[in-house]
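Re: Re: token formats

Sure, here are both.
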Amino acid sequence: MAIKLVAVDIDDTLITDELIIPERVKEAVAKARAQGVKVVLATGRMLSSTIPFARELGLKEPVICYNGALIQSVDDEQPLIHHPIPLDLAREIVALGQKEGLHVNAYLDEKMYVDEINEYTEFYSSFTKAVAHPVGDLLVFMDRPPTKLLYVCEPEIAEKWRVTLKEQYKGQLEGFRSKPQYVEFSAL
């Protein structure tokens, strides 16, 4: 059977810790594409931090972002698919995070919003180069459904919340960890 499509994650797969695509990876992608294989980036990252890698590789296929919550062509302004978290559930996740003293990132309209800039914001931004926009209180600010929510915390705390909230929101939200310090939430 001939391979027709390859989906590739970005972090810890496509790029190095220095956030670059190694030459051997670029060559492998180019070789696959020359053989007619479609290459798709599939990541938890925001669209804006995914497109530069797609362009660097010369990809024209849509990219899968926010763990599948958004699918969009590289050169289009409108998404092909967008499944944000229902606002009522998003507010519950943010309120719980705030109550428990967890750092919360909310992703709306291709921007990352936070209550305040702190060490968790800096940690997250060092891996993604995402710019954080402090808004004071996310619950007050968040007036529409976010594409994704993310807690950034210590690894042992992250696992506790992943397990607890995965069970609590079973059938309503997807909750998972992409890095030891992250608990991510997206719509089903």
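Second one below.
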Amino acid sequence: APVTARWPVMSTVAELSLPVGATNLPRLQPIVAGCFDAVENRLSFFRETSDIARINRQAGTGIPVAVAAGTADVLAQALSVARESGGAFDPTVAPLMRLWGFRGGVTNLARPAHEALGGTLALVDWRQVTLVVTAAPPHAAVHLARPGMELDLGGIAKGYAVDQAYDALLREGCSVFLVNLAGNMRGRGAPAAGRRGWRIGIRDPLQVQAGAWLGTLTLEDGEALATSGNYERFVVVEGERVPHIIDPRDGQPARGLISVTVLAGSALEADALSTALFVLGVDQRRTVLRAHPGCGAVYLTDTRPPRLRVTPELHGRFRPAPGWKTAVEW
């Protein structure tokens, strides 16, 4: 089996896996951990000194906030996915998350009132984010147009952190590895002779036992995988589980799916697209995927019985588990 290091970061668990017999794990793990810590320090919604927190404090003031080049890059890509998805992915969704009891908000016993929802939706609009990049210092600055707006890059930051770690490992001369941050994965090489890459099991959220899979996908050199689902993080409102994926367009919990797994060329891309595609649903995916050639998705619907919908890009790549073979719609 591959050798793996696990450690806590970003309120979740990180893993670095190397091939059988590797002896350089103690040297490489701190490098990956350092990448994750640097991203958290810069992009955390909760750390007062982060670029994101500093931007949020100046919302509506007209004062642009100078940010690191990496922050500008992640925000630019987040705004691009927001545009492609018609706002199904929106980096200004934080006020809505708080209203529903996430992101430090107080969970209500009842659903948000119409007036409260309307007022909060007025603060959620990716088009009200101004990002200016210049050749002269400070090189990048960000401004939020309205008081009360808040950036939250939680739907893309973990993928970006995995990409940063991936690049750092390449610079170290590492040719076979898998980086995993809360299910955001990117791999290179193969962990054993005769394999094409890292074979990843996609969790079956309808089964409680460990090792229950919907199927598998193999990550070939540089490919990444991310899953968005409604089954791990939720609040209970009026006796109903409300998952943490909120549709930024109407302020309601996203419906229709249990999970979406995306295969992409980078972890950032996979991370953002999994959220966007979860909100959009199976039938509205085409515009987004058209803008990301080579990306594909596996959807688990919340129908009865549930179905697995696999986009054409993953035909021949996704291998359903035996119990799911008859549920797949290719």
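Residues 25-43 form the longest helix (19 residues). The mean pLDDT is 93.
- S.
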